[in-house]
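Worked example

This section walks through a single chain of length 675. The input is the sequence exactly as stored; nothing has been trimmed or padded.
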Amino acid sequence: MSAQIRLLLVLLTLVLINQSAYAQACTTLGQTPSTAFPVCGTNVFTQNSVPLCATNSLFVPGCSSGSANYENRNPFFYRFTCFVSGTLGFVITPSAANEDYDWQLYDITGRDPNDIFTVNSLVVTGNWAGTYGPTGASATGVNGIQCGSDPAANAPTFSAMPGLIQGREYLLMVSHFTNTQSGYTLAFNGGTAVITDPTEPHLSSARADCDGTKIRVKLNKKLTCTSLTLSGSEFSLVPAVRNVTTAAPDSCSFAFDFDELELTLSGPVPNGNYQLVIKNGSDGNTLLDNCGRSIPVNEQVPFTYQAPQPIYADSIAKPACATDSIRVYFPKRINCASIAANGSDFVVTGPTPVTVVSAGGDCLNGKTDYVVIRFVAPIFTQGLYTLRLRPGTDGTVLVDECGQETPNQQLNFTTADTVNADFTYTQRLGCQRDTLRFQHSGANQVNAWSWSINGQTLGNQPQYTHVFPATSQNTVQLYVSNGTCTDTSRQNIVLNNEVKASFDMPSIICPEDALVVANTSIGTVSSWRWQYDVLYSTTVKDPAPFQFPTIGREAYYTVKLVAYNAALGCSDSTRRTLTVLDHCLIAVPTGFTPNNDGLNDRFGPHNALKADNYQFRVFNRWGQLVFQSRNWQEKWDGRINGLIQNNGVYVWMLTYTNRDTGQPVSMKGTVTLIR
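Given that input, the structure is written out below as tokens.
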């Protein structure tokens, strides 16, 4: 009932929000997935107020009925990467009482953050309890996602800590169900995962623009927008031919951090070599990452300015296996408008025909650092190919950001053959162990091998020898690579040549019954030999039933089986003991002496081998049950619960079904216990 109440509250709220004056789309930085706060695991986030807004509805696994019917009401989003696998713990603490906060965690690795609204599988865990107060993930939290509830139900607000995987990216959504602007704190603690980037911040590179009045600076990681002054007071030139007048980060209009910025100088720099130096700015620091770590004072990067000259392509990135494209880098950014979309600026020749079908770059503000040239079909074979730049069907060659045309030129690149991991093997069979030698051809320049046997990596050469049990099921896998192309092959290998003699038979039979044996031997067996004590032998696999002679007393015999593999020179044997009773008539004695002398110490039928549905019970003179059993070989020792019983007469009752006739039998009598 509580979940239904909460669901109704959610749906009602959706209607009310749409009718409210403040029910508007979320636009504040941090309130949409794409503008999420970057997280440092050591920081405590304090949101003093929460702007009222609503975005998309959400799917909550195990809670949503049909389509998504939960809402990220008045949300904030937090984005982080896992650097060491482990569990994630955190606490959301409302600033005011009677405040309801919910949350949901997503794995957005390689995805557009906005996919959380359409791809249900991205959800990791969450908690939507209607209970007021702190919420989050802890070691004592409940497993699974807590669905929406009535606050009076006091549903658990802490979920179990989810496991994070190293290298994956996550998005935490915090939803303020209560329509107030009261804020909260968010602290990450208690888990074993590391979500704090260990990379120290540094300058990466600097490059002057075409006219020498601006410098493009790249950083090795994202740094906070608030740590940069708009005047660029953190930077200076050596030699000091010009001053920095402004600094413009590339992403601070839509994010909290940046990794590239543009410095404007007081004038153009002359041709020459320079150092860009960082220092404490007018705000008292250099540039800071999200954990407050700064680029060291006086760190510097070199750059060279030269009046614009025609540029040549720098290089071609190493082609992938069966490549259907190549990436060409240039020393300056290329004007995207000068790239013919049909790829006609480029021609590729080589051992096999290659047709270029398109070209384009990763264009930012109409400029790109590289051009990707795509082919109509992949190149599968090894060879040396030549890329030639020329004017395209648009009538122009490539033009760089300074307006300089790229001269006609040629660049070479090499492709690799595709590889095949298929392997063969030879085997040397043994009695208990088999030796298998695996072989890969090494074709197509394969230079790396990895053999795995039953999940364990064991060898790194083109040949590998392994010893297996002669009876076993094994999985053999080979990974190969030529430095560019890779392949994996797997074979399931079943070995069953071990000779293992085995058979089933009863341990006791009646004198009128023949012995029936069942051969359960395994392995590759070429011949057999059965020996029924000194009475009988045979070499057939499954002997016919054998009738032992009647001698008027109980007899004991040894049955032996030998299994042979002539080709391997192997054999194995096993033997079992058989008791042939003197008779199978059910007889119950009239007395017994449980004095531990080894003679007549226990009471029960002498045999009941052919008694199906057997039940035997013994009563004292007061009608108390003192013993019962459904196993005819289990007999009474004259005790009840370990207590010795007195001398006297006891009544027994026996019921069973005769195996030969199928008739039920009921017997009754007395026995005298004598000590």
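What to look for: The chain has six domains: 2-188, 203-305, 315-415, 424-496, 503-580, 591-673.
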